[in-house]
Amino acid sequence: MGKRILVTGGAGYIGSHTVLQLLLADFSVAVVDNLDNSSEAALERVAKLAGDAGRNLSFHKIDLRDRDALKKIFDSTKFDAVIHFAGLKAVGESVEKPLLYYNNNIIGTIILLETMANYGCKKLVFSSSATVYGWPKEVPCTEVFPLCATNPYGRTKLMIEEICRDIHCGDSEWDIILLRYFNPVGAHPSGFIGEDPRGIPNNLMPFVQQVAVGRRPALTVYGNDYSTKDGTGVRDYIHVVDLADGHIAAVEKLFQGGSKTGCQVYNLGTGKGTSVLEMVAAFEKASGKKIPLVMAGRRPGDCETVYASTSKAEKELNWKAKYGIEEMCRDQWNWASKNPWGYGKPDESTNPST
Ligand code: NAD
Ligand code: UD1
């Protein structure tokens, strides 16, 4: 059996895809998740998709802030590294309930890091976000750009990045990789796992998906007066399987013999900018569904154009995104059409072997 990885938030959207890739790459995986924004069904499907390697997956339904429960997991297993996804991520909610976000994201992370240090597990991959670039002065964004945050969610990402840099500064035994994700979309090509947001989706593609399956009447386009090719916002959409593979590359870097990793940061994106209208058109083509649009004003806190410089990850992680927006939309629609209610209706759940 390969190295043992603890994955926090592993039942969630990016976590579940990463757990599958880890199992397929022969890692042994323990997931910690409170299922606040996810379903255990995702992990059951991951185990099935992984075939024999599914045996190497265990699940612990606990909250990261439950220090005693976390200790018990570290008592029972010696982990080689941790991938830390667990956190709340809705920008609007973070503005309304900042303490909820600081409590969950910051305190959860501190308890995790303290527990790791107590058990001598000092290798970490953390989910940061392109949100830390704010409205960048130029694109593509490189990892040395100035950082800022415009809302409590973004501030938790920035604070955790700073905490990681500080703990590495205080103890050089830590090896830490901060991954700044651009816009993850799509689903596993099998259509058995994908994104299943609770309530009204905040992000573009989950909303488009719900319009396509008839759960919502139309997509509201937030702003068509930006200085972009068609006036709508431009982002760097990345297939979630590419993103998951980026985590495998990061974990492998942590285990590379010889030199220490230190505390490093990498963008995970494709380096390409796509507008809202281009993304909608690609999804319409993939699904054969018309997405009705309602034009509206700009969303507060949105920026015009963000896309990644990918050269650092390509060079140092030996990783590059493989998929384009066609594949992203194809796989998103495959997941949506097979699971129009996400993991919500167990009687309708599908079996990967059928
Ligand atoms: P998600 O909500 O699907 O997954 C997060 C998981 O963490 C959920 O399963 C949730 O139940 C769990 N969780 C939250 N708080 C917890 C706690 N205190 N204890 C235990 N489990 C807890 O979100 P995702 O899209 O998979 O995102 C994963 C990470 O990546 C998050 O940290 C998010 O901020 C970051 N990120 C996401 C995006 C994106 O667009 N999806 C972009 C940039 C960064
Ligand atoms: C948003 C968050 C960001 C977070 C990221 C991933 C804001 C201001 N930013 O980024 O902090 O890291 O999600 O969770 O919330 N759009 C529409 N209609 C919609 C939804 C989105 O037109 O219903 C547009 C947006 O204006 C934007 C693009 O689609 O131009 C992408 O939006 P979204 O998917 O929310 O991602 P970000 O804005 O990049």
Written account of the structure:
- The protein has 354 residues and is of the alpha/beta class.
- 38% of the residues lie in helices and 16% in strands.
- The protein contains eleven helices and 13 strands.
- A seven-stranded parallel beta sheet has the order 3-2-1-4-5-6-11, with helices on both faces. The chain has a two-stranded parallel ribbon with strand order 7-10. The chain has a two-stranded parallel ribbon with strand order 8-13.
- α5 (98-118) packs parallel to α6.
- The chain is globular and about 55 Å long.
- Residues 346-354 have low confidence and may be disordered.
- Residues 9, 11-15, 32-38, 63-65, 85-89, 104, 108, 127, 129, 181, 183-184, 203 line the site of nicotinamide-adenine-dinucleotide.
- Its EC number is 5.1.3.-.
- InterPro entries: NAD(P)-bd_dom, UDP_G4E.
- Belongs to the NAD(P)-dependent epimerase/dehydratase family.
- GO terms for molecular function: UDP-glucose 4-epimerase activity.
- Keywords: Carbohydrate metabolism, Isomerase, NAD.
